[in-house]
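Run: sequence + NDP -> complex structure.
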Amino acid sequence: MSTHSDQSAVTVLGLGPMGRALAGAFLDAGVRTTVWNRTPGRERDLVERGADGARSAHEAVAASGLTVVCVVDYDASDAVLRSDAVTAALKGRTVVNLSADTPGRARETADWAAAHGIRYLDGAIMTPTTTIGTPAAVFLHSGPEELYQQHRPVLEALGGSHTHLGEDIGRAAAYDIALLDIFWTAMAGYAHALAVARAEGVTARELTPFAQGIAGILPPLFQQSAEDIENGGFSGEGNPITSAASSMAHIVHTSEAHGIDAGVMRTAEGMVRRAIGLGHGTDGFSRIAEVLGRR
Ligand code: NDP
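>> structure
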């Protein structure tokens, strides 16, 4: 049995697709791994690969100095971590919470951990399960630097890049929220685009290479927008907001002519028209972020 001073042991709580990928990567890297999941049975193949299957969550956390929890959200991680037996077993040990939720929930969990003598780091995983254990995985971490450095060697067994974003425990979740905002609004736009294209007789397969071309335009635009926002420049030279409004109106009209809900694009168009109404029609699109951020 490992003790909590064993630096090469880890417990993984939560064996959904991501928790299983994490536990598998730890095992592949030779880290002694104890696993537990609320619904029994999910640990079976991991145990066949060498994991210790714990009978309870408190037995699981007692097996290692470091516990990684990866469940659906913080209601779920609270349900696991805040039972009396688990909280008691965690005293003096470290929890890294890689479940996704809000920055506020991360800060509140850190307060709870501190009140119970539990050392706490928060984190976010920015890539799919298939990347875990490979160079393509992206992990973000936040919380006490010294604690992060102490557990970094084991965390790096998960492969990919690990970035410590700072001591503010909510910072990893803040990045996660912002990055998933980009992802989900892009995916909602893509779903809408496929529906409108299909109504015009264009298949998803036909559109794909051109859709990928549009995605490829974005990285340099993100860089330019960041410069604009940091410098307060908002130059619309060559591509003013008024032009965006006109393009968006064409999309709304085409969509609605086919009876397809254009709500995603109508919302975007509304943001743009508000900026124009405030006198920013000749500015670039990055002005929208400044207008939205006004309180
Ligand atoms: P889910 O988000 O579906 O989480 C499933 C896990 O949560 C299971 O272990 C499940 O246990 C557990 N769970 C749910 N409710 C409770 C509860 N009340 N008490 C205890 N355990 C509970 O699947 P993933 O594994 O994919 O995701 C885990 C986290 O990783 C999420 O926060 C997700 O956003 C994040 N993530 C996932 C990615 C992916 O590609 N899958 C990519 C990046 C981040 P049970 O089996 O008993 O139901």
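>> summary
The two ends are 55 Å apart (CA to CA). Residues 14-19, 37-39, 42, 70-73, 76, 79-80, 99-100, 125, 128-129 surround NDP (CB under 6 Å).
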